[in-house]
Design goal:
Helix content: 40-55%
Order of helices and strands: HEHEHEHEEHEHEHEHEHEHEHHE
CATH topology of the largest domain: Rossmann fold
Radius of gyration: 25 Å
CATH architecture of the largest domain: 3-Layer(aba) Sandwich
Structural class: alpha/beta
Keywords: Signal
Strand content: 15-25%
Largest sheet: 5 strands, parallel
Protein name: ABC transporter substrate-binding protein
Number of strands: 12
Signal peptide: 1-23
InterPro entries: ABC_transpt-TYRBP-like
Pfam family, one: ABC_sub_bind
Strand order of the largest sheet: 2-1-3-4-5
CATH class of the largest domain: Alpha Beta
Length: 309
């Protein structure tokens, strides 16, 4: 009888240990490398953790901030020591570092402007910040209408090809684009001065780099004085005086990145996982600018804005 009791206790302890042992074997480390430790990056990480929590895997995120080449070695050592199964890179600098250093590991990149940051590496997939041109043009039409031409500020080398595609798509939905090349910041004042007064709006490709901290004051003042609305690049541009800006749901971007990593863990090669844009579109509106420009928008468009300034 005592032997049966001992055997029963042994079996009970074994049954208790087995799930824990299985859980331990399922523990997976994913290394996250961030270009900056800023709020959008933390929002993305929260979204990634959310995707992991429902994945069926036990996943731990090992987070590092890539500062410069001086901390390359500690990050590489951490990836090796943790036996990381994949790398999540957030931001252009972190992605450039990951792509150059971890060719043997699958990489999911996020918070990058476009696919150029990924190069030709077959071990990389990711999520770009840039919305498809179709989306941007549809929102332009909703805010500005199709009865006025849109001045497109572009850089011939950086966004010349993008301009051609934008013009084709705009024609299909009844928008008129008026291209204005700005190949150097010093060209901007003269380009703006030549714009006709009946210009419906100012719009620029993000990758052109024309709208930045150096040019913001000049462009916003021109927009205000000439009552030509500016389409911003983010809610900070809207807050400063742009009529509206499209923005991203960074938490959901994290969920998308997490879902891609889960696909990799399930055996799908990164090259078979498409690089995608954000699936959610947020937008902000500046009501002071709207009134100053003497524009009218449907009430539903204003009510559905993520932020109103």
């Amino acid at each position: 009888m005592s032997r049966l009791i001992v055997i029963g206790c042994w079996l009970s302890s074994l049954l208790i240990c087995v799930p824990q042992c299985l859980a331990d074997t399922q523990s997976i480390t994913i290394t996250a490398i961030l270009s900056r430790d800023a709020e959008p990056y933390q929002e993305v990480l929260e979204g990634v953790r959310q995707a992991f929590s429902v994945s069926g895997f036990r996943i731990e995120l090992d987070v590092h901030v890539y500062k410069d080449a001086s901390n390359n070695a500690p990050i590489k050592a951490a990836v090796s020591a943790s036996r990381s199964r994949a790398v999540l890179s957030l931001g252009s600098q972190a992605t450039a570092f990951a792509v150059s250093e971890f060719s043997e590991l699958p990489i999911c990149a996020g918070l990058i402007v476009d696919e150029k940051a990924l190069g030709d590496s077959e071990n990389v997939t990711g999520l770009v910040l840039k919305f498809p041109l179709e989306i941007e043009l549809q929102w332009l039409k909703m805010f500005i209408g199709s009865d006025k031409s849109i001045a497109v500020l572009y850089h011939e080398e950086k966004s010349g090809a993008e301009l051609g595609r934008a013009q084709q798509l705009a024609e299909q939905i009844g928008l008129r684009l008026h291209a204005q090349a700005v190949n150097d910041h010093s060209d901007l004042p003269s380009v703006l001065k030549r714009l006709p007064q009946n210009t419906g709006a100012l719009w620029s490709f993000a990758e052109s780099g024309i709208l930045n901290a150096q040019t913001a004051k000049h462009v916003l003042l021109y927009s205000f004085r000439n009552r030509i609305p500016l389409v911003g690049l983010s809610n900070q541009w809207t807050k400063a005086g742009a009529l509206y800006s499209l923005d991203r749901d960074y938490f959901d971007i994290g969920v998308q990145c997490g879902e891609k990593i889960v696909k990799i863990l399930n055996g799908i090669p990164p090259e078979q996982i498409p690089v995608e844009p954000p699936r959610k579109v947020f937008y902000s509106i500046n009501m002071k600018t709207l009134r100053h420009m003497k524009l009218e928008l449907p009430e539903s468009l204003i009510q559905d804005a993520h932020e109103v300034f």
